[in-house]
Amino acid sequence: xxxxxxxxxxxxxxxxxxxxxxxxxxxxxxxxxxxxxxxxxxxxxxxxxxxxxxxxxxxxxxxxxxxxxxxxxxxxxxxxxxxxxxxxxxxxxxxxxxxxx
Length: 101
Fold this sequence. Notes:
The structure is a single chain. The chain is an all-alpha fold. The protein is built from 3 helices and no strands. The protein has one domain. Helix 2 (49-71) packs antiparallel against helix 3 (75-100).
């Protein structure tokens, strides 16, 4: 019985930590989108900042999605989708950076 209480308190602590990570990911996405808008309005070359920010946002959301996936079996679909999206945004960042140099 004591073991179950410890697991429950660990899950609550982990969820609290992932909530703060979610807030950080929102801040990063706002910064990335704002910079991309700035670049477009000032006729700068395409920047890889937005795709890099989105890559980090997806990576920061992953721990929370994994927590949910352990409780809900269909949550793993979201985890796999996030991993695929992260890889695609990473590749987009790479391509954008090297074609604009």
